Amino acid sequence: MSTLENRPNTALLVVDVQNGAIAGAHDRDAVVANVGGLVDRARQERVPVVWVQHSDEELARGSDQWRIVAELAPDDAEPLVEKNYGDSFEDTTLETVLSGLGVGRLVVVGAQTDACIRSTLHGAFARGYDVTLVSDAHTTEDQTAWGAPPPDQVIAHTNLYWSDQTAPGRTAGTVEAKDVDFG
């Protein structure tokens, strides 16, 4: 029950599944396979797939690190939103794209769990979207050298706390890829 009026549609939001963002990510191949399966299902069900692509000093626009992984290929008709901040809505065209598609509910997948995924989840929720995180279709790198928990714990914790988010007129939650319902 999104708080956004006249926005009954759902979109699959694929965040930063780029070579440099997930090269050393936890369970990389399984996550990419789950994302790919969801992209295929969304296309079959005529659910919009919206791609987000980050660029910064480490992911220089146009570089191999910046490119979306070879296993996934955005369709020419699918929107691609470029961003420079963690929150996929911040200083991007994402809101305009979603509004044009009548989207009020997002199914979120991608990388990095403890950065762009969390920022985008909260950014969407605060803007009035219903937001579902696919629990086995997001990942992160090992940041233990900087004091973070191991990646599997970061992912598990994010799944735990997102499954309990509440706000007036909005829904949040997690679901495994096999159980995603785009309806």
Provide a quick synopsis of the model.
By secondary structure, this protein is an alpha/beta fold.
Give a verbal description of the structure.
Helix content is about 30%, strand content about 20%. It has helices at about 20, 30-45, 95-100, 115-125, 150-160; strands at about 10-15, 50-55, 80-85, 105-110, 130-140, 170-175. Strands 3-2-1-4-5-6 form a six-stranded parallel beta sheet.
> How many β-strand stretches?
6
Largest sheet: 6 strands, parallel
CA-based gyration radius: 15 Å
Question: What is the strand arrangement across the widest sheet?
Answer: 3-2-1-4-5-6
What's the helix count? 5
Oligomer: single chain
Shape: globular
End-to-end CA span: 13 Å
Percentage of residues in strands:
15-25%
- For the residues shown, what is the average pLDDT? 97
Helix % is 25-40%
> From N to C, what is the helix and strand string?
EHHEEHEHEHE
Please mark out the parts with pLDDT under 50 across 5 or more consecutive residues, or reply none: none
The structural class is: alpha/beta
